[in-house]
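Hi everyone,

Forwarding the result from last night's run.
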Amino acid sequence: MIIMEKEVKTIGLSRDLIIHPGETLIEVLEDREMSQKELAIRTGMTEKHISTVVHGQKNISPSFARKLEYALGIETEFWMNLQANYERELLEFEDLNNISEKELSVLKNLKDVLTMWEDAGWIEKDANQAALVLDVRKIFGISNLLDTPKMKYAAAFRAQSKNVNIDPYVLFAWQRMCEKLTENIEVAEEVNLDLLRDKIPEIKQVMFMKANQIQSKLTNIFSECGIAFRIVPNFKGAPVQGFIKTTEDGSLILCMTLRQKFADIFWFTLFHEIAHILNGDTKYDFVDFDSVSGESEAKADKMAGEFLINSKAYRKFVDNNEYGTVKGINEFAKQQSVKDYIVLGRLMKDKKIPWGSRLRYEWA
């Protein structure tokens, strides 16, 4: 079903309100008491041509706009701008009249995302649904929202994927949100992997800061390495842990979510993404779900674990049953330069201790 014209008019754009430049031309002629015949002589055009323009049947071409400047003393740019505005409004009107009910239904999937985009000022609040489709098309960079699922993702997946519910519209919206939220972050001109590796100890120290200071500090550290970092809200339909993208200027985008909110998972995932960057897994857009496994994922997991806790030291710690007391866990965490919840999370994952309460972040 196609939206009817009467429905589109509710956004303030009616076909009757789209003014053809010919209407302005005839007003000028009437004000000057100049006939169409005289204008034809002054411009070197036929009377028929003048008549078709003033009646909206023919557009004002650049060459005719220049002739009007000579004949009427009104600049060429004025007539060309009138023509361009008319064509743009006509295109918008035609766009609105060709939005299908199926494309409109995509907005329902994006309800939570659009609320955030409104708050960010990316789209107009309380906009008509048809006008909203046009805004989302521009942000998505696609002429029809229904084609979104056809967009390809070079994605890595962690864990099991069979029970993951992915909405391609929400996922793509989340990816575009990552790109927009990082576009104004100033970073070094080139990605410096050696510097990033050297920054590992400094990044680990950030976990000792107050929660509301973490994002700012991480952003500063990553920017020195040529990476734009941002923690981005997650949405139902996009079970995403991280997103890495190489931009046109060669810098990197690295976005994280707090989907599960557990502090130990956040830090493990952050170092997992760093491992992907260091391993060269980021030649294409890289969406990291908490789903499927693979060789590159296993390699990144191993490296992330090593960044946080030295594997040899951990085996000795476990073999000697040093994790049986709070003091033992705290001392080992101190040796590894991590917070105690990192050690506790590792022990729970390895089933050395029962699952229990874990620190959650609530600041993003």
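The radius of gyration is 30 Å.

Cheers,
N.
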